[in-house]
Amino acid sequence: MISRRVDSMGRVVIPQEMRDKLGISHDTLMDISLKGNKIELRKSELSCAVCGGSSHMLKGASVCRGCAEDIAAKLAAVNGEA
Ligand SMILES: [Zn+2]
Hints:
- The chain is an alpha+beta fold.
- The protein has two domains: about 1-45, Ribbon (Pemi-like Protein 1, Chain: D), CATH 2.10.260.10; about 45-80, no CATH class.
- The protein is built from two helices and two strands, in the order αββα.
- A hairpin with a 2-residue loop joins β1 (about 30-35) and β2 (about 40-45).
- The radius of gyration is 18 Å and the shape is elongated.
- Bound molecules: zinc ion (ZN).
């Protein structure tokens, strides 16, 4: 276990080794929930698998609209449709 102090803004730094292990980087969306007297912090499943962003997510997909359009354009180019 690692102990960290909460700063004046209520923030706690997640240890680098834990962030690395879970693939958490700058701008990764995190889900925070209260479980009894514990705070559970987990990487959101709503983030894009390509860019890690969380805005404009496609329903039922793990990718955002921007990345989906980028992938579609690359596929079209490979298939000679562009
Ligand atoms: Zn994306």
